[in-house]
Amino acid sequence: MDPDDLGLQYTYDPIPNIRALRKRHTSGYGIVPERFGGSANTEFEVLTGMTRSFLPDGSLPYRQYVRHPIPSLPQTLEDFGYTTIAIQTGPKYYYDYERVYGLLGFDRVVWLSELPGVELAARGRWPSDKAVVEAIIQASQEVRPFFAFAFPSSTHSPYNTGTYKDSDLEVLDPALSDSTGEVKEYINALRVADQAIGTLIGYFRRQPDPTIIAIFGDHLPPLSENALHTFYKNRSGMSKTEQARMIHRVPLLVWANFDLPREEKELSINALPSYLLEKMGLSPSGFLAVSNAVRRKVPVLARYVQRADGKILARDSLRDEERAVVEDYRLLQYDLLLGKQYSLRDSASGWKPSDGASSASNQLRTP
């Protein structure tokens, strides 16, 4: 999360690189499906364009529902000639990564934690951010065009190792009794991640190939109630819908080494794949075309919705046209994820509306 959202003061900004990049490039917020955990559900949304909000609370699609190949961003880019690579700091068994990544269409996976001699983060539990950046750069040098999905873990909980107890990046807010140093550890871990992002951007800024890099959080950090006291206090007067927005909101940055008009965006993370394809000059097809149609009418689709005009409201308050497009999206996701994949049977033309589909379906872009 943005450390400023904690409502605390620090000796200096933990994320100066990200802050500067957000001012010059497309930025805003992603709305993620979980609050303080469940990283794989954010992965699920950003790699498939599907939404966890259509599934039961507490569900984990990677473990429960992804049982066969499904349309995905990696598969779509592979169809356009890209090599697709996942770079994962977690173990293969975590969230069934090894099984699921194959079903999502990745050409290969770099399991950083299994590489001999890989540098660990200062907190000692996961491969370092430097190792993640080096893996991305190496992948880019092997084959082009390429798509890499990289998952670092250096800012992951717990925040009680005391690794940064002697750091000069301190919490100054007198209202917080940070007796265990958890907030200090979190913001110092953010600082290290921010430095790695600066290295990553610096490398690709010098490369001739047009490159887009999207950076976003997977969920808010599971800090203690004491550490989050000001965060909650500052939101106590908000409506329930607005409170839900704030607790699922993570920073989003879309950087490019070519001229890409800057925008301020707030998107559900499941809308990010179609948005990125558009910025790459590629036309979303099949399921991602449907996701793209939803994004244009309802940029945020979660337990609440945000319409294209920016208005935040309950899902049952959508206008008829918006509701029809969302319902088509829901039915198609059910077919692809939980049903018999009828919509994939005509592989030559992709998905087309059935006879019983609403008239709004005819507006959806198909291949």
Question: Short description, anyone?
Answer:
The chain is α/β, with parallel strands linked by helices and 367 residues long. The protein has twelve helices and ten strands. Strand 2 (83-88), helix 5 and strand 3 form a beta-alpha-beta unit.
Shape, per Cα inertia axes: globular
Portion in strands: 5-15%
CATH architecture term of the largest domain: 3-Layer(aba) Sandwich
Question: Helix share of residues?
Answer: 25-40%
Distance between the termini: 37 Å
Describe what you observe in this structure.
The structure is a single chain. This protein is α/β, with parallel strands linked by helices and 367 residues long. It has helices at residues 16-24, 39-48, 61-64, 73-79, 97-103, 129-142, 182-205, 229-233, 240-247, 272-279, 286-297, 320-337; strands at residues 26-31, 83-88, 108-111, 146-151, 212-216, 249-256, 264-268, 300-301, 304-306, 312-314. It has a four-stranded mixed sheet. Helix 6 runs parallel beside helix 7 (182-205) and helix 11 runs antiparallel to helix 12. The chain is globular, with a radius of gyration of 21 Å.
